[in-house]
Recover the amino acids of this structure.
């Protein structure tokens, strides 16, 4: 890979730090949509920058991208297969009552199921 | 080439050197592990709006500082790789030691953070939110510690100009650890 033009790693790091600042500042606006976009949108951008510039995934052989993408798909399959049991509260021949809303205390506050 | 050399270092079916291919396999499998854990957290968090009250107690300043520390350590890791590519083992080892310092700093900050939270009664068995918090951040911290240990061995060899190709490999693993934290930070500290 030595013939490949290297990006300016310090510049990429500086951009990552600015993006970190944006994600920390997002909640200060008090708007949920802004918080979510700055938090997770920035996270996706940062992850992309690290994968492209630090891990050199853009110049790596395609097989590596295929391997990572396959496992990402499997991860979403795992979620999709288990999510209905958690998110639904009734189905064919079963019913799960809603958990009680617990008080916001640090000791044993959450409902357990 | 010496007959005693293992096949894995002389053949590659994919065109990628075997060591690097192995690291990509590790990262791919960790996507399922960490991804599964994080989407499970998202799933349960959406089903428990009352967890917002517990999440308010996470220390955003500590999380942001740790994010900065890991981003900087990723920079030093990739600079180590660049030095190794140039054949400069001692420079690569120096940058790897800075990366190890970043990892150690991360663990120290997390220790202070958790000590404070545990002293307030926010333990792993307190409720579902804190269970996810300590499990996800703890699993990540274990990966940081493991990475630092391996990096120690790689940097020791690199300082003698030996096995310089391993600098890139441990760097790839370290960037993956950084990316996991890039997603953990907003989940646990920002999107409360």
């Amino acid at each position: 890979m030595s013939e490949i033009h290297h990006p300016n790693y310090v510049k990429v790091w500086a951009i990552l730090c600015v993006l970190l600042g944006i994600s920390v500042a997002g909640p200060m606006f008090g708007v949920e949509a802004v918080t979510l976009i700055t938090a997770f949108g920035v996270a996706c951008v940062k992850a992309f920058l690290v994968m492209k510039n630090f891990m050199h995934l853009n110049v790596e052989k395609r097989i590596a991208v295929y391997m990572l993408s396959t496992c990402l798909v499997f991860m979403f399959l795992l979620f999709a297969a288990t999510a209905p049991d958690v998110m639904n509260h009734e189905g064919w021949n079963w019913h799960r009552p809603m958990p009680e809303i617990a008080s916001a205390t640090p000791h044993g506050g959450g409902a357990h199921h | 080439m010496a007959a005693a050399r293992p096949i894995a270092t002389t053949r590659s079916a994919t065109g990628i050197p075997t060591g690097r291919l192995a690291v990509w396999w590790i990262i791919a499998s960790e996507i399922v592990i960490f991804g599964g854990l994080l989407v499970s957290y998202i799933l349960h968090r959406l089903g428990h709006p009352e967890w917002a009250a517990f999440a308010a107690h996470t220390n955003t300043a500590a999380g942001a500082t740790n994010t900065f520390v890991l981003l900087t350590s990723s920079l030093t890791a990739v600079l180590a790789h660049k030095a190794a590519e140039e054949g400069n083992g001692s420079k690569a080892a120096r940058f790897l030691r800075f990366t190890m310092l970043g990892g150690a700093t991360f663990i120290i900050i997390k220790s202070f953070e958790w000590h404070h939270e545990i002293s307030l009664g926010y333990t792993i068995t307190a409720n579902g939110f804190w269970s996810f918090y300590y499990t996800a951040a703890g699993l990540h911290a274990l990966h940081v510690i493991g990475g630092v240990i391996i990096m120690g061995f790689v940097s020791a060899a690199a300082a003698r100009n030996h096995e310089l190709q391993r600098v890139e490999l441990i760097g790839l693993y370290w960037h993956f650890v950084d990316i996991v934290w890039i997603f953990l930070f907003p989940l646990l500290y920002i999107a409360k």
